Amino acid sequence: CEDCGKSLIGECKLHGPLIRAKDRVIPSRARLTLPHYLTLRVLELRAGNQQILGVFAKKVIQKRTQFGPYIGQLSTKLTRYDESRLVLQVLKDGGKYFLDTPNEDCGNWMMFVRLARNQEEQTLVAYQHCGEVYFTTVKPIEPHTELKVWYAADYAKFMEASAVFIKEESDICPLPPVAKESVDPWICSSCRSTFATFALLESHQCIHKDRV
Predict the structure, then answer these.
(1) How are strands ordered across the β-sheet holding 124-129?
(2) pTM above threshold 0.70
(3) Band of pLDDT at residue 84, cut at 50, 70 and 90
(4) Which of 70, 74, 91, 106 is 20 to 30 A removed from 159 (C-alpha atoms)?
């Protein structure tokens, strides 16, 4: 205590406690990287004050807008798993690694983007290029719309996941096959792969265009 000149354990009984000034709380690295035309919204508050966040557009975002690369730590196993986010892996030096984001200071804003539960709400496609993961818009995104992502066709094979999906409660499963006699398949002009819908073909062609 500077008033009585004594070194005390705890507060001074004569002059009282110190007035504690706290440091200013600064946003995490991930939140600071958020583009100015995007915003984070709290969608749910769980036990322990855990916030479930979503990324929303503040203005119109054009189709074929690329975001990334996704920032994370290369790891052989995930230290943080969230069923509402995509699990992402990359190929580096012949090895397959997870892009792990154990906390908000280890990643960028893309760690907040939730997975799409069906094709209608998907706005982004995730794919790997030169050992990095990028997200690209597959349709124009209107203001106040949440950005949601799923794997591109080739990346889905790499991740051993379904490229075509719907979600019923907590299960993700393939859509029923389209009968060939009723609908003509969409064919990729670059690799001749066939797709049941034009939207799937568009997502697949993003990879070819990015490689070029």
Answers:
(1) 66-67, 132-137, 124-129, 148-151, 114-115
(2) no
(3) confident
(4) 106
Residue pLDDT, tens place only, 2-14:
888 888 888 888 8
Residue 95 backbone dihedrals phi, psi, to 5 degrees: -110, 155
Task: Compute the Cα dihedral for 74, 91, 153, 144 and give only its sign.
Answer: positive
H or E element, residue 155: helix 153-158
Amino acid letter for position 79:
T
Instruction: Write out the two tokens for 139.
Output: 């349709």
pLDDT exceeds cutoff 60 at 145: yes
What Rg do the C-alpha atoms of the chain give, in angstroms? 23
Q: How far is C-alpha 117 from the chain's CA centre?
A: 13
Write the DSSP symbol of residue 145: P
Q: Which helix (H) or strand (E) holds 195?
A: strand 194-195
Distances (CA, A) of 138 to 55, 120, 181, 207: 16, 11, 28, 12
144: pLDDT strictly greater than 80: yes
